[in-house]
Amino acid sequence: MVSLADHFKEAPPDVFRPVRLVEPDGSRAEGEVPTLDEAHQLFRWIVFGRVFDQRMISLQRQGRIGTIGSIRGQEASAAGIAMAMEKRDWLVASYRELLAYIVHGVPVESIVSLYRGKVPGPFPEDVRAMPIQIVIGSQMPHAAGIGFAMKYRGEDAVAVCCCGDGATSEGDFHEGLNFAGVYKAPVVFFVQNNGWAISVPRERQTKSRTIAQKAWSYGFTGVQVDGNDALAVYQVAKEALRHAREGEGPVLIEALTYRVGPHTTSDDPRRYRDEEAVKAHEGEDPILRLRLYLEKEGAYREGLQEEIEEEARERMSQAVEAVESAGAFTPEEMFDLTYARATPRVEEDRRVTLSRLSGGASS
To answer: Catalytic residue at 7?
Structure first.
């Protein structure tokens, strides 16, 4: 088990050593690794994440869903943090963590439906997950508040807040972490540092040597992990969740990864970054790394990845068919879902909008 104490004492270290359990070539690094059953489960999830990403981008290109942010190359981070969570924990995340939502229990159909602009209602009641946050960094205070509320109620649960490195430049990041630190709220802040905030590189966002070390200014622990090492992310996340769950305070995890694709399907990264730099990260593919590890451990059989990919494609096809057969979003639903009980202003907006759409007078 990776212990936070092995990496951090009373203050941030002079040199951060990101936790890594598996090298890019699949060989073991240092530290105790998860079981082979857990490794297989992680492998299934990250392979599914790659297929999910490919299908969602394809749907967007066909005009069947809206703009989507690719998770390619970051599957290990999303799957690792979510698989470490308990069902009773809350997931508070953004659009780069769609795989984390699915691993935590949100149906694939719900994700596809949301990106088609149709909201079938909240996520299932037995899944503790907040709506996908699009406004950068706004989920940080939400997670801190949820953690504080659970502590107040005496719940044995943790709020897990996921964001990108770009969100750490927002005021909400400071407010959320400061609040969580002051009240020792059970929150794990998980930052996917993929090097880019759309077109702004990491070095233009902060002069801090790391994002992890920011935790100490708020009075709690920070740790770096190799975000392309699924086993390391999972193991560090489990320890961070234990730390927060047992009342030892929040934890900030910085997962070092790389955004292989564009920011979203509306972005052209060739305008602001060198494609040679992207190629330099191709050897860090989290799927290949975990597959090589399983092979070296004698726990991989020929054709396994292809079988998982085929199952994932079938699952995606079923989800898309179910969502598309349910019908398109209607203007009426926009007003039904604004508040639990429509206000007079919403009712007036509904009347005017529907009247205009039907060709009638608006007043």
So the answer is: no
Residues belonging to the chain: 363
Could you give the CA distance from residue 215 to residue 237 in angstroms, rounded to a whole number? 16
Residue 120 is predicted with a pLDDT of 62
Is 279 within 8 Å of 96 (Cβ atoms)? no
Tokens for 299?
Answer: 């726990």
Query: Based on the domain organization, do 245 and 290 belong to the same domain?
Result: yes
| Angle separating helix axes 108-115 and 304-325, nearest 10 degrees | 50
40 as an active site residue: the answer is no
Task: Report how far apart, in Å, the C-alpha atoms of 175 and of each of 115, 118, 343 are.
Answer: 29, 32, 30
Look at the chain and report how many structural domains it folds into. Answer: 2
CA distance 231 to 210: 22
Q: Can you tell me the distance from the alpha carbon of 136 to that of 173, in angstroms, rounded to the nearest whole number?
A: 9
For 279-297, write each residue's pLDDT tens digit. Answer: 888 789 999 999 999 999 9
Domain coverage including residue 159 = 4-328
**CATH code, domain with 264:** 3.40.50.970
Q: Out of 263, 289, 293, 300, pick the active-site residue.
A: 263
pTM score of the predicted model: 0.92
Name the active-site residue from 17, 272, 345, 356.
272
Are 158 and 279 members of one domain?
yes
Catalytic residue among 259, 289, 291, 293: 259
Active site residue 263: yes
